Amino acid sequence: MLGGAVAPIAPQTTLAAVQRSWLAAVGGAIAAQAEPVAERDGTLEVACTNSTWAEEIDLLQGGIVARINQALGREAITGLRVKADRARFDGQGSR
Predict the structure, then answer these.
(1) Sign of the C-alpha dihedral computed for residues 42, 55, 22 and 90 taken in this order
(2) Which of 71, 15, 7 is nearest to 42 (CA)?
(3) CA–CA dist 89, 35 (Å, integer)
(4) pTM of the prediction?
(5) Would you give the DSSP letter of residue 23?
(6) What is the largest CA-CA distance in the chain?
(7) Rounded distance, CA 66 to CA 25, Å?
(8) Per the count of CB atoms within 10 A, which of 18, 21, 46, 73 is most buried?
(9) How far apart are CA 77 and CA 39, in angstroms?
(10) pLDDT tens across 48-87, in order?
(11) Per CATH, which fold does 11-89 belong to?
(12) Which residues are CB-neighbours of 47 under 8 A, at least 6 positions away?
């Protein structure tokens, strides 16, 4: 019931679309360690729990970008900017 009311007010930005499809696009392991936080001109900024995950996601970015674009149904994302941002994840339980 609420879904129908929420959908029209949800932001229609590329970032919002990526955030909605993030788990399906990247899988649970990556989604537990990283999240999309900004998008500008096709570059998606991803915050990670630590530098090890940031490096791993950077190495995997070609496949990640392809899966995100497939989930979106369009070529909206051209690359990732990945950074470690532990403070963003502190207090959110074990990730």
Answers:
(1) negative
(2) 15
(3) 10
(4) 0.82
(5) H
(6) 41
(7) 9
(8) 46
(9) 8
(10) 999 999 999 999 999 999 999 999 999 999 999 999 998 8
(11) GMP Synthetase; Chain A, domain 3 (3.30.300)
(12) 34, 35, 37, 83, 84, 85, 88, 89
